[in-house]
## 1
Amino acid sequence: MKLRWPIVLLVLSAAAACGRARQEGPDERLTVMASILPLADFVRQIGGERVRVEVLVEPGASPHTFELAPSQLRAASKARLLVLNGLGLEYWAERLISAAGNPRLIVVDTSEGLPIIAGDADEPGGNPHIWLSPRNAMHQVRKIRDALMRCDPGGAPTYEANSARYLDLLESLDREIARAAAGFTHREFVAFHAAWAYFARDYGLKEAAVIERRPGQEPSPEDIAAIVRLVRSSGARAVFAEPQFSAKAAEAIAEEAGARVLFLNPLGIPPDYGYLDTMRYNLRQIAEALR
């Protein structure tokens, strides 16, 4: 049989064009903006393939000193849901919402309804580091689930099933941390800043001192001397630093007090970030210092 090459090529070209059309068609997923990486992970766990998530605070940056980029303001004008931690962590949130001019944008504050620990003078709403206790994280997951269902009622069965599965995993993590903490021989620790107050409260520990009381403000020599005395008197064997900040002060305190520097990571490290794995890493570091 003699092939008619022009016709064959025409058919193949049309098929290729259809394939490109499918690949390059509009993205029908729900666009969600999340302030920090842990909240973005919660959204992905609940939303699955129905959502497209953008993280506002870039990995490795601190939400306490974050500045919005013009591209993020533009992106917010097309987003459907904005997921915030709340308690003033996103001090820029009102500016983002106002600049977006997006009447369809739903905003969820995941801290609403939680018992809040008092913050310092710069945190009138309370300590914002709620996600660092899995018990609080469960509350945040439920708030995100409900917000997604409001944005996308048709996806409710997916959001219900995914959140139930993920809440089971968070409950297992909670039990794992509680068992480990029950066996610690030390209860007090020194942290870089007051990020671990909720973790300490929920698992019977004590954040005895913090190195940096305000974001970006290094401790004075008098502050360092006081923390050194506290580390010595408490018998703490480690001082916790964080990869998002300089460890210089933590290293000075640890050297003077005869302790080690260990790293806790409140925000995690991409590209393979997962809240569960990050919290298990933090648990191992805490156990190294307190067991």
## 2
Amino acid sequence: MDAKTISVNKDILSANSKTADRIRAVLDRHHCRMINIMSSPGSGKTSLITKTINRFKHTCSIAVIEGDIASSIDAEKISLLNVPALQINTGGGCHLDANMIEKSMNDLDLEHLDLVFIENVGNLVCTADFDLGAHKNVVILSIPEGDDKPYKYPVIFMEADIVLVNKIDVHPYFDFDMGTFPEIIYGLNPSAAVLPVSTKSGEGLDDWFSWINKILE
């Protein structure tokens, strides 16, 4: 009898994509934009989100969906800014998926929201495989991580609409080649923008805020 191969991974991703399309349709009906932020642990996702909330909270309504393997530390930080923050704990899973996001959206008042941030689980591998229904994907790479990460984890950079190089305030202390890094990204993803920033000093954040403004138009 011939062996039959079943592609479980393909079926999972196909079902996830259908859910993601459904999420985008719901968001579009409510004129709400969703941005998925991905990076390694400690690259600065939460810091970027808090800086962005402080910049825009008086001109638009924002909510955040926090993804972590465990704890609600980041969601608690966001809640202190008086914006809705929903926590998803994956219990060991290395990424969020569209089904998790769709369930979380039931707790959001989309009618009165302009922008939703997803802070994905800290991971450069499997987070890139799952469409979450976001309108834009942001990847953060911090200076201490090194400029070779796009070679090691190309898929996540291929999925990015913008790559933020964070912690440029410590650039003098690390061998990160900022001159050639954009060329590496453009080689993988010609349409991705590359933006050096520091969430600590604020350098480059005005350009990031301008990018957000264009998303909200």
## 3
Amino acid sequence: MGPHDNPGANIAIKSIEEVAHALGVAARNYYASTADHLHAIFTGLDRQTCDVLVVGPDHALAINRSIIIAAAAAGKFPVICALPEYARDGALLSLGPNRTELFRRIAYYVDAIFKGTPPSELPIEEASKASLLINLKTAKSLGITIPAPILMRADELIE
């Protein structure tokens, strides 16, 4: 999948690049649409060339998250992502929109449309609540200590 195929991924990539630039670190973008693409990407990565792997919020890519988690564990790469399934499966952490809240808002929109409100009259909303999951087992295996204030803010700690 190329960068033009997923507008949401493009937004995430731009944000990641801006943060990386502000921190003075380099960011490389890789695009994968198949398991073979993922294997090829990980073949060229090592701890000298990659400090952390940030996986964009691509649900199509999430189908192959077991490959990402296994390769990251083998290469000792911390993985940060937006989807909670990654953290539950072994990524260091996930930070993204709280899906429960998103689904509640979807119900509001469906209700409004069924009651006759034209979709064009409904406001576009941005997620207002984020969900932070931290995998403590992964942090320990990577030798990473998560500061207490961050642990206290987590919505879920995976042990």
